[in-house]
């Protein structure tokens, strides 16, 4: 009698090898092995480049050679990706990058405490009707968990780290599940000022250009027609920061983007809008402040003042968390080094070591 074809494929078998720097993995589901290895073995090539191992595919097996720790990391990467493919997920180069980051990350060093076992080999994820988004770095993982466990979350760090995208994905998931009645999107509309009167159109048309990154993420998470209905009904609201004064936001998920351009008074006003059964997510990059000279960023001040306050989580991203083009991470690092040198020249500290 043939085996029941409805059973899920077996987990990959680790074939013992004599040398501790030599391992062979065999995968039983031949239907997905090609996607696992990638076209022309491009996924294996990426693993080789990132982990410093040699990975050679033959049939449904891959032989990994290299330092013991690197071989273990490569094995974890392939097992994680294989499991995702078994569950029906598609695989993109960015997913391979994320699995590699996970394999080399020291889970004990994550930004926030975790309730999961330290040996877990998967990142947090958030699902909407259109797609499932999986964290790709330890900081992204901490960020998603923070949104589950805190009512006010700050995401601080450079461009390209996924702060806005993950926040919108999380918000869309809450709306779809009925855990929040509405989504409020806000952002300082122009550098330092929010002088919108000269722009043509109604309020939405005035602020739309400044909220385009939020809209782009929202349309990826939800069907376009549902987004449009939500905007028309008020379930999804866009509001410039200056128009928040005097409101109390209840049963809502509230997202403030580009918060580094809030003044201290604006930030205090915004944070005190939080009502019952609501969550706030505040994102920004303190290295891109557009406020006039002499004005303190409300984001930097709030992060300092609220560190350690119950119900508040602060997750800090670095250039290592950039998930756009690899060049973006190198650009961010170059600017950070230049800024550190300038600060040292002004007498604020020693220059960074090379």
| CATH fold type of the largest domain | Rossmann fold
Number of contiguous helices: 12
Largest sheet: 6 strands, parallel
The fraction of residues assigned to DSSP E strands is: 15-25%
Assign the CATH architecture of the largest domain.
3-Layer(aba) Sandwich
Count of DSSP strands: 12
What does this structure look like?
There is one protein chain. This protein is of the alpha/beta class and 354 residues long. The chain has 3 domains: 13-104, 2-Layer Sandwich (Ribosomal Protein S8, Chain: A, domain 1); 120-323, P-loop containing nucleotide triphosphate hydrolases (Rossmann fold, 3-Layer(aba) Sandwich); 324-354. The chain is 39% helix and 16% strand. It contains 12 helices and 12 strands. It has helices at 30-37, 42-51, 68-86, 93-104, 138-149, 163-177, 203-207, 212-221, 224-233, 264-271, 298-306, 326-345, and strands at residues 13-15, 22-26, 54-58, 61-65, 125-127, 132-134, 152-156, 182-187, 236-240, 252-256, 279-284, 312-316. Strands 9-8-10-11-7-12 form a 6-stranded parallel β-sheet, sandwiched between helices. It has a 4-stranded antiparallel β-sheet with strand order 1-2-4-3. Strands 5-6 form a two-stranded antiparallel ribbon. A hairpin with a 6-residue loop joins strand 1 and strand 2 (22-26). The radius of gyration is 23 Å and the shape is globular. Mean pLDDT is 80; it is low at 1-7, 106-121 and 190-196.
